[in-house]
């Protein structure tokens, strides 16, 4: 590399733009990310659209389409210049930074330098202490939007960006919107269902006050109210959002989710299909539709006392097939959609196709960098599959134990612990000298903090192991 290119690279590293923000996106997530970006450009009504074109340019670069990336940057530049705001030059810094990086990657350092010069001049104009880096709330906001769009691994950092921007300008409608959406996503991610835990309620209400026409935010507030048991209040917001033509495709999506959770499955399917007409490749929508068909299957089976026959069974089987096709499509679009693997496997089990269920679980286990809670969930459901369908207590125990040994507190961990306890007690009932079951019960009570009970079971296990004179059995009793 030439000395000139090395000098350019040293300057590029100082920029604040998509190339330096360390956006965590796996290669397998790029097609779905691009689909979601294009959907947002087409169907989300927002005054803040330049950033999404910048992100699209970065994704185009990642998939090797640098020429198309330049086109997206031109779109972003045009939108910012239309704003004619006093701060528009500051907003252009991100786009110029992306241009500079893109030209550098295309082997055109002179053009990269030309954009670096633009950044330097603007930084100088605004009195920034750094030649190529501007610290200001607009830049924090741009970084926040980019992180937010790139998925849950980036949410905490997105929240910090919007918090930093709001600290400078607390009543800014755009910063408030970004912060509200991020806290909503984090609440969903952290399964916050208590009023005390629902951190996003106040940010959502503030964002609506500052953006009264934003139907998208109203739909999110409705879902959060439903989460915390205020469904009737939530439905008012959903109905209000549905009367607004703003961001209609997105409102249909979230309204469909609201009505599915309420049990109004036909209404949920109708709204989902309306949204699907506009965004046929949405992994989120196909997953939601699959969940509707799964819920319909459960309704049919429950009404038939879990033993449907004749035409009723045919109808139930059709719902299973419909759910499978939508879950499959969702996973084709987004191969990292962890929970969709669990739902797809559960439908294969309903269809008595244990081979495909097994394959689906194995694909889920192969996913890279799974969050602890999601891994626990996969281990729990796979343990259930092994216990009840494959009739393998040995494999079920292995996977329940794996879920429990991941120390993150979660519903899946609690369920795994209960399943493990029941299984160990059942085995012990069959054979009071089962050292493994005694050890498992000792382990469970230790995890629960009931140390006296834990010691009692561990001691029984060790005594039996000593009686058998089996060192392997002794080590198992201690190890679990």
UniProtKB/TrEMBL annotation:
PROSITE patterns: TPR, TPR_REGION. SMART domains: TPR. Gene3D superfamilies: Tetratricopeptide repeat domain. Keywords: Antiviral defense, Immunity, Innate immunity, Repeat, TPR repeat. It comes from the Eukaryota. PANTHER family: INTERFERON-INDUCED PROTEIN WITH TETRATRICOPEPTIDE REPEATS, INTERFERON-INDUCED PROTEIN WITH TETRATRICOPEPTIDE REPEATS 1B. One of its GO terms (molecular function) is RNA binding. This is Interferon-induced protein with tetratricopeptide repeats 1. The lineage of its organism: Eukaryota, Metazoa, Chordata, Craniata, Vertebrata. SUPFAM superfamilies: TPR-like. Belongs to the IFIT family. TPR repeats lie at residues 338-371, 435-468. GO terms for cellular component: cytosol. GO terms for biological process: defense response to virus; innate immune response. Pfam families: TPR_8 (PF13181).
